[in-house]
Amino acid sequence: MVALDRVFFELAGFFSYTFFAQFPITRDFPWANLLLFAAGGICLVVGLFRAFGNARAYRGKIFGPILSTLAILIFGLFSYVLFYELRQVPPSTGAPRVGQKAPEFTLSDQDGRDVSLRDLGSKSKAVALIFYRGFW
Amino acid sequence: MIQRYDLLHRGAGPKGTDIARPAEFLIDSSGIIRWVNLTENIAVRARPEQVLEAFEQGEQVTPQ
Q1: Fewer Cβ neighbours under 10 Å: the N or C end of chain A?
Q2: How confident is the prediction for chain B on average, in pLDDT?
Q3: Whether residue B41 has pLDDT greater than 80
Q4: Per the structure, how many domains does chain A have?
């Protein structure tokens, strides 16, 4: 049972991102999660030394390596998603730049009426155009 | 429209469908783009405060 609480940190580091992602400071770069992983890593190393140093008392020679591997896999998955998969955004070299004229468009509003960029611009000071990635 | 703005993210939607990559534009009343945010990380997008700040800065440059 000694090693289980070590893996807890790694699990906490992994799943708590859904909580920390609500705040910009911990979402844009996952500081809090990396700290939890670091705490888990230190505990794992200490635990492994104990397990192999006094295997009879802790009975950790089998569980130690298994749970350590599990913890490393969890950390690996977290790093893969956060530092690789989320950054797989295609470059958009053709996207309009500052100073250029925004391409004209007409879309339906919530009532089904057509709204064009020109209409919006003539009625207001500025138009914020947000491309939202969500599909849910 | 997504293609016109070159913001297509191929195969990133459910079951490999194409969706838009996140992007934010601020366009003035004459249709000129004043501010653009193209993120490199889909978890990091422009926050409402950033858009408002960009709007206020744009107002200071060209008071109407």
Answers
A1: C
A2: 82
A3: yes
A4: 1
Across residues A39-58, what is the average pLDDT?
Answer: 79
Range B17-45 average pLDDT: 87
Cβ(A104)–Cβ(A116) below 8 Å: yes
For residue A5, what pLDDT is reported? 65
In a domain, A132, yes or no: no
Q: How far is B35 from chain A (nearest CA, A)?
A: 6
Length in residues, chain A: 136
Cα dihedral: A17, A19, A22, A28 (round 10): -20
Query: In this predicted model, what pLDDT tens digit does every residue of A79-113 receive, in sequence order?
Result: 888 888 888 888 888 888 888 888 888 888 899 89
In a domain, A126, yes or no: no
Mean local confidence (pLDDT), A60-69: 79
Q: Is residue A133 part of a domain?
A: no
Q: What are phi and psi of B45, to 5 degrees?
A: -125, 170
Q: Check B28 against A135: CB less than 8 A apart.
A: no
**Residue A45 domain boundaries:** 4-87
Measured in angstroms, the CA of A117 and the nearest CA of chain B are apart by 8
User: Where do we find the tokens 């992602």?
Assistant: A21
Give the nearest chain A residue to B47 (CA atoms).
A24
In a domain, A104, yes or no: no
